[in-house]
Design a protein that fits this description.
The chain is α/β, with parallel strands linked by helices. It is about 35% helix and about 15% strand. Strand 14 and strand 15 form a beta hairpin. Helix 11 runs parallel beside helix 13 and helix 12 crosses helix 13.
């Protein structure tokens, strides 16, 4: 069947709730390209929403998966154990930052990892409350939805949400929640955590602070250098578990194995998923051994958590990251993207901000640069135009006005350049077609 026929079937058989960025049906994919059922090839700047860090169908991943599937695909780790689970845990424990003993458990999705981290923190501290951040995203299950900030489409109509979740502003310097100049403010937003203990919940009632080192769905917002060290110090003063949600930022995307390493902070617990297993459902919680061991036997786990096929895929991913130098590759890709986005910013007034670390670089689009008015419609049009030209990419941000490239870190140089060229052409066209007079021109 072709795309049109499959789309009709999709609309008839699948509910409208699952969103689709494109109306394309994949037939095959290799490294940083996807070929649809009609034979058209697309450059992939989405990577399955940051999942395909080592590219589509990497031979080492394919081989590992085939080998494991031929032996057995499932026993449930809680019934009959297998080596891949414990070996992957061993490697995760050694990769995670922190000079202390660590342990790792596995689940299926990023949301499950976050929920398990909260369970662990609550059990270990005997406290109930959790603090999350505005513009953050932590998943779509009930507790994760409660932690997630954005209402539409993630939370609208799905309440009531779990109690004892409190939210404070994030260090979003481009749109400072305190209306300060980030060059001179002294990272005043880092003190909002202490303020929360005065205004929302006693520090002695807080089990965990859950935070993304770089916002994913929130638009690649990247805090200043002293932000996380100060948050972590506050947590330590009050006996609060510091949880880094690295579901989107982990495994090399920023040029480090984990993004939090850029701030020199050692989280108590780290949540990972996405690029961990190259498209196979796997997530993890890695953290201080004494915290991880606190829940009772049977208190953590799940039928499919740490599936052997997914674990073998993840072991291959870790090998690929090391053997192919993908941390260094992320830095090179990021430098090229940043230069392109900065050039776009000089050419187009609609590019308000360029930010990020390593290959996790984004551009925020605005109608008027001075007013910083979010340009959601323009961003949507840009994504659509790029797809028409053969480039798949996705947007992000609370206002839906951020372009966030999540291409495989294995992308070939020429494919990266072609993708950036298509993005530039698409940007030229949509800006020309949707030109809006500036306030000065309208007399506003």
């Amino acid at each position: 069947m072709n795309n049109e026929q499959l789309n009709r079937m999709r609309d008839e058989e699948v509910p409208r709730g699952p969103f689709n960025v494109t109306r394309i049906f994949a037939d095959s994919a290799k490294n940083a390209t996807i070929t649809d059922v009609e034979g058209r090839e697309y450059i992939d700047f989405a990577g399955g929403i940051g999942v395909m860090g080592v590219g589509h169908a990497h031979p080492k991943v394919v081989q590992a998966v085939q080998d494991q599937a031929a032996h057995f695909s499932h026993t449930c780790f809680h019934v009959v154990m297998y080596e891949a689970y414990v070996e992957l845990a061993r490697r995760m424990n050694r990769l995670a930052p922190g000079d202390f003993a660590k342990k790792t458990m596995f689940a299926n999705s990023g949301a499950e990892a976050v929920e398990n981290a909260v369970k662990i923190a609550r059990h270990a501290t005997g406290r109930d409350a959790v603090i999350a951040f505005e513009d953050g995203f932590h998943g779509r299950t009930l507790l994760a939805m409660g932690l997630t900030s954005k209402v539409m489409p993630y939370k609208a109509g799905f309440g009531p949400f779990p109690p004892e979740i409190y939210r404070i502003p994030y260090a979003y310097c481009y749109r400072c929640p305190l209306k300060l100049d980030h060059e001179t403010c002294g990272t005043a937003c880092a003190e909002l955590l202490e303020d929360a203990f005065k205004n929302y919940v006693e520090a002695e009632e807080v089990a965990a602070v859950v935070v993304e080192p770089i916002l994913g769905e929130g638009g690649f917002v990247t805090p200043p250098p002293d932000y996380f060290p100060r948050l972590k110090a506050t947590c330590e003063r009050h006996g609060i578990v510091f949880v880094a949600d690295e579901v989107q930022s982990g495994f090399g995307r920023t040029g480090r194995m984990f993004a939090i390493e850029h701030w020199g902070v050692e989280p108590d617990l780290i949540c990972t998923a996405k690029s961990l297993a190259a498209g196979y459902p796997l997530s993890a919680v890695t953290g201080r051994a004494e915290l991880m061991d606190d829940p009772q036997v049977g208190g953590l786990g799940g039928t499919y958590g740490g599936n052997p096929v997914a674990c073998r895929a993840a072991l291959a991913v870790l090998d690929i990251i090391e053997e192919e130098g993908l941390l260094q590759r992320a830095e090179l890709i990021g430098a090229r993207i940043r230069k392109a986005f900065m050039d776009f910013q000089e050419e187009f007034e609609v590019i308000g901000d360029v930010r990020g670390v390593g290959a996790m670089v984004a551009m925020e689009m605005v109608l008027h640069r001075e007013a910083k008015t979010p340009a959601a419609d323009l961003t949507k049009a840009l994504v659509g135009r790029a797809v028409q030209k053969g480039l798949i990419m996705i947007s992000a941000g609370t206002y839906g006005n951020v372009i966030r490239p999540l291409m495989p870190l294995t992308i070939e140089d020429e494919v990266l350049e072609r993708g950036l060229d298509i993005l530039h052409e698409s940007l030229q066209e949509v800006v020309r077609e949707t030109a809006t007079p500036s306030p000065a021109q309208t007399g506003a």
